[in-house]
């Protein structure tokens, strides 16, 4: 049987009241959304870093990097895009 543990006390999910099951479902949904948003925030932070580097290059060299000049440290040539 499935259990949930809260403050070191285990509860069998099947024996919970309908209200408790609804609260549990809401809690699971919120946890799922938080994980999704954390992943999205990580992707946006990565993009922010790349844009910042491109801006710095533009300011220092007076031009934006050409598409074939852009590289991400550590990736090498392992990623290819269809044209």
* Helical segment count: 1
Task: Indicate the mean pLDDT.
Answer: 86
Low-confidence stretches: none
- Summarize the helix and strand pattern as letters: EEH
Distance between the termini: 51 Å
Task: Give an account of the 3D structure.
Helix content is 53%, strand content 10%. It is mainly alpha-helical and 83 residues long. It has a domain at 18-64. It has a two-stranded antiparallel ribbon with strand order 1-2. A hairpin with a 2-residue loop joins strand 1 and strand 2 (9-12). The chain starts with a strand and ends in a 22-residue tail after the last helix. The mean pLDDT is 86.
Provide keyphrases for this structure.
83 residues; mainly alpha; single chain; rod-shaped
């Amino acid at each position: 049987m499935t259990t949930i543990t809260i403050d070191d006390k285990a509860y069998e999910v099947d024996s919970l009241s309908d209200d408790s099951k609804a609260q549990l479902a809401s809690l699971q949904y919120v946890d799922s959304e938080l994980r999704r948003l954390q992943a999205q925030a990580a992707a946006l932070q990565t993009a922010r870093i790349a844009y910042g580097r491109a801006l710095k290059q533009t300011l220092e060299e007076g031009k934006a990097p050409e598409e074939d000049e852009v590289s991400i440290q550590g990736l090498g040539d392992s990623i290819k895009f269809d044209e």
